Amino acid sequence: MHLDVIELRRFYYRSPLGRAAQTAIRGAVAAHWRDARAENVAAFGFGQPFLRPFREGAQRIVSLMPAQMGAFHWPVEGANVSVLAEERRWPLATGFVDRLLVIHALENSERPGAVLAEAQRVLAPGGRALFIVPNRAGLWARRETTPFGHGRPYSVSQLEARLREHQLEPVRHSAALYAPPSERRFWLRMARAAEATGRRLDAQRFAGVILVEAVKTADVLVPTITDRIDAGLISQAGEGLKLIANYGAGVDNIDVHTARQRGILVSNTPGVLTDDTADMTMALILAVLRRIPEGLAVMQAGEWHGWSPTALLGGRVAGRRLGILGMGRIGQAVARRASAFGMQIHYHNRHRLRDEIEEELGAKYWESLDQMVARMDVISINCPHTPSTFHLMNARRLKLMKPDAVIVNTSRGEVIDENALTRMLRAGEIAGAGLDV
Fold this sequence. Notes:
Layout: H1 5-14, H2 16-32, E1 40-45, H3 48-51, E2 60-66, E3 82-85, E4 97-103, H4 112-122, E5 123-134, H5 156-164, E6 168-176, H6 185-189, H7 191-201, E7 209-216, E8 220-221, H8 231-236, E9 243-245, H9 256-261, E10 265-267, H10 274-289, H11 292-300, E11 321-325, H12 329-340, E12 344-348, H13 355-361, E13 363-365, H14 369-375, E14 378-381, H15 395-398, E15 406-409, H16 418-427, E16 432-435
């Protein structure tokens, strides 16, 4: 049976022992989670004292409190983010939570399996949960004068086994509350030293609470191109992960080698965004040459004073030479669109296209990238990011461009030395850039 919210508030906010416990547990939580910047953070149980450090950086925070426990307005100085919730039906969307804290909940629940099932449901793929429960071997579980003396205490192995039953893979555990649960001044004064000593000696079996951090496991992981799926994350995935299905055309955000070693398939969607990326490429070419963003900025600033022959004078698109770097699906789609605007199509590619494709596109092949770059009015980057294309447009190549030329990138940012590009734009050494990555 869940404790009453009034008792928990009295313990953590009014009693010296509760304040010492809050400090110790908050320090242990911080050792697991340094910050939760731009993430959705939730708690189930009585998590408010331990959510406070994440309020500034988190994108959203919500504190779910079991209906039997009751709720209170928190934070007291701001808009309320506490809400009552049934153990078997949390008012959160599936996959909404990046970080979940569960404290004063599992040990007191009559349906701990339902709590874990909901925790697994609301966690995002790769999301992390931190479970804090009384340690069955510790003194705090034997003192009913504290909140940790109620309900069923756990050992680390018991809790980890329950988590695995619900596709929550334990990745790390720690402990807190090494000082005895005593209100005596001596032990209260010694609380911080006891915590430091307990952590240093790794004396977890004597601690009052155990903390187990777990990651949500899945059969399939669907990241976007901005998610780094590196060796560390893959190594923490459970045995059930069989496929990483990348939501994008490339796989450069995934450690494919580590995935292959783990027997995990990696897939991508190379043809899905061809037309969309080509549309965006053409939009950027038009925007830079016709100075559309500059005109919009003048209007929004209220500085437009009427038409004049040279006001925001842009450049004509028709007749300009477009050099496409990377003539795959997207590069060819860009060529077709640019031809419709009357641009002359040139390209550099690892392999020359077949004669019939060149004839269809009206494209001229350049074996030397340097020679092409030096003669183009517009450069469009459409090659994939690989070790061989990293900074392919480096400072030296950028300086080959004509002063009135522009460059557009809808591939990957790493293909261009962006620091060198920034310096040249500020110095007026090239006319403009349109970047979608």
